[in-house]
Amino acid sequence: MLQDRYGNDLSTSSATARDAYIDGVDRFLAAQAGAEGAFQQAVAADPDFTLAHLGLARVRQAVGRGKDAAEAFSVVKDNAGAMTAREVGHFNAFSLLLSGDGPGAYKAIRAHLLDHPRDAMIAQTCMGVFGMIGFSGQPGREAEQLAFTTSLAPHYGEDWWFLCQHGFSQVEAGQTKNAEANLERALALNPKNANAAHIRAHVYYEAGETQAGAAFMKDWMQDYDKGGALHCHISWHVALWAMEHGDIDQMWEVLDRDVAPGKAWGPALNIMTDMASLLYRAELAGVEVPKSRWAEVSRYATDVFPNPGIAFGDVHAALAHAMAGNMDALNRIRTDAKGPAADVVQTLADAFGAIAAERWADATKHLTAVMASHERIGGSRAQRDLLEYALLGTLLKQGATDDAKRLLAMRRPEKVRAGAIKGL
After folding, report:
1. How far is the C-alpha of 343 from the C-alpha of 347, rounded, in Å?
2. From CA 240, how far away is CA 244, in angstroms rounded?
3. CA 206 to CA 171: how far, in whole Å?
4. What is the arithmetic mean of pLDDT over 57-76?
5. C-alpha–C-alpha distance, residues 379 and 399, integer Å
6. Residue 419 pLDDT
7. In the chain, where does the domain assigned CATH 1.25.40.10 lie?
């Protein structure tokens, strides 16, 4: 029987379909362009190849194309009786995932991995800060993420994809040196692995190595297709570093070319959150941000995420609406927040509303309330520095410079010299 790169049996007898499927999986795991096309080639070579259809559905779902994902999934659903046991595990997990049942999907995925730990397309759903664990809304989810990848480590060995994902768990849990070693190995095994390059950028960021990080990413990005799923978000890192070492022109250039709505290619969640984050962090650094910029992000957030439901997105949308003066949209998030992190979303919506109204003491109170638990909204430490720095900004507005300096030194000591906040 034909097998995938991880030694899992495949139900297709077509070597062409097998090769296209493996290519699609590798492109997806490396966040490289072309994964959807490769899965389509596998389906064309063998229309009855269940995992190729499911791969196509997963690629589309991962970038927020829910209707297209459902279309690919429906083909499998109509032929569910002919599946192998492993394919049934995929089908059940993705059925729950596409229906929005996160807790149910996570339970099914963990059960599936007990029998098939090297089923990378299933394991991938729980990886990173946007995965099933990252977006669970639960306290302590960074520790759970590290426990998850640690439990799988013996099954993957020197695999370029798994090494970088384990490294991400490590850097988010503060194990920066271990993460660096795994990421260097991952990049050596597959230099085109955008996930590894992106997570390596996080190691540079956490270490406060702005110049080294910017130089690394400038070199690596030269060959990265703009159609790659991480192109927008990696550009956010590049723009942040440009801002931190004072090159504001480059920051705007990168933002307008590779991050802004209509210019960036990538998941809408990345476009919206990266734009809102970059604009506010620019303001904190002393950059003048035109109101029209905020209005653009607020409109985009309303268009692509009209209803609250993803805490990480809701928080950034609330920021954009507040800064644009779109109080109706802000209040909608405040009142309609859903999910296990809804309380954090509501508190942060109040904080951003207070910031927009220049009620600095109120903003400080609301931001302080979530400092011990903001990992619940999802996202990385680097992304959630938006909240850490927003709190420092409110303290500076009240003349509490010493308090702001002390807080920065305690919570983000490696960022003290980053130049990320004017006045510190």
Report:
1. 6
2. 6
3. 8
4. 90
5. 30
6. 80
7. 15-126
Distance CA(224)–CA(221), nearest Å, equals 5
For the cut 90, the answer to whether the pLDDT of residue 418 exceeds it is no
Task: Taking residues 393-415, report their average pLDDT.
Answer: 95
Tokens of 258: 């590779």
| Encoded tokens for 219 | 């070199």
Kindly write down the DSSP assignment for every residue of 112-160, as one continuous string.
HHHH-TT-HHHHGGG-STTSTTTTS--TTHHHHHHHHHHHHHHHHSS-H
Q: Which residue has the tokens 């779109």?
A: 326
- Residue 81: the pLDDT is 54
Which of 11-20, 58-67, 312-321 has the least mean pLDDT? 58-67
Query: Residues for the chain: how many in total?
Result: 424
Q: What's the CATH number for 15-126?
A: 1.25.40.10
Say how far apart CA 376 and CA 344 lie, in whole Å: 8
Which residues fall within 8 angstroms of residue 36, CB to CB, at 6 or more apart?
24, 56, 59, 60
Q: How many helices (H) and strands (E) does the chain have?
A: 22, 0
Query: Helix, strand or coil for residue 309?
Result: coil
Half-sphere CA count of 253, side-chain side, radius 13 A: 7
Residue identified by tokens 């890192």 is 237
DSSP class of 46: -
Q: What is the SS3 assignment for 293-318?
A: HHHHHHHHHHHHCCCCCCHHHHHHHH
